[in-house]
Amino acid sequence: MEQPEWSIQDIARLAGTTSRTLRHYDDVGLVTPSRIGANGYRYYDADALVRLQRVLLLRELGLGIPAIAEVLAGQRDDTAALRTHLEWLSQERERLARQYASVERTIAELEGGEKPMAEDMFDGFDHTQYRDEVEQRWGKDAYAKSDAWWRALSDEDKRAWRAKMELLGSDWIEAAQRGIDPAGDEAQALAKRQFEWLRGIPGTPGGGAAGPTKEYFTGLAEMYVADERFAANYGGAEGAAFVRDAMLRFAESL
């Protein structure tokens, strides 16, 4: 029985991506089409779609293409790998459900004239939610150091750190909206602030007095664009691209 196939345009539409991205995945060996027709079009069978699903799930975790290729090479059993992804998705669904219930409860209490209880307000807001992701990308030691540092901060210090991060993010967004040159002095000053901010987080690869490594800094810059969760911190895809370009230019001096 002949296996069904889908054209590259069909897969791009169904997966919410682009034909250009799929061609790039083919070029770098991540997702190879099952065949290329006489017209030069790429066609994908079910096996190729499973591979693509795994790639897209790994991108959701914030992994770059080299890291994805490494993971796929080490996990050749598609079913076992997808079960791992399913477990992560289940945990994420549970966390979001807890967040939803927490916010819903706070709204109800405020509307009823009650004072929300602090212990009930932050269920599901867990700073450890990216633990597996961090450990996979940069090692268990990186996560352990940053986690210990965060837990040791006082509530006041945590608020100050968040405020500093939010100010930096808003300054990036404002600069991007004004359309300044990513290589200009103003954008490079922001990139330096980004570098210094990362320097202050224990566990950052190459952190400490020397600051983040060039590889980490540029990899993070690319991840801001690749991962919608991070791009949202900079006003979306265009803002994240501006941040990336400025950081990549700054990294040339490292």
Structure characterization notes:
By secondary structure, this protein is mainly alpha-helical. Among the domains are: 66 residues, Multidrug-efflux Transporter Regulator, Chain: A, Domain 2 (Orthogonal Bundle), CATH 1.10.1660.10; 99 residues, Globin-like. 68% of the residues lie in helices and 3% in strands. It contains 13 helices and three strands, in the order βααββααααααααααα. Strands 1-3-2 form a three-stranded antiparallel beta sheet. A hairpin with a 5-residue loop joins strand 2 and strand 3. Helix 7 packs across helix 8. It is globular, with a radius of gyration of 21 Å. The chain starts with 5 loop residues before the first strand and ends with a helix. About 2% of the residues have low confidence.
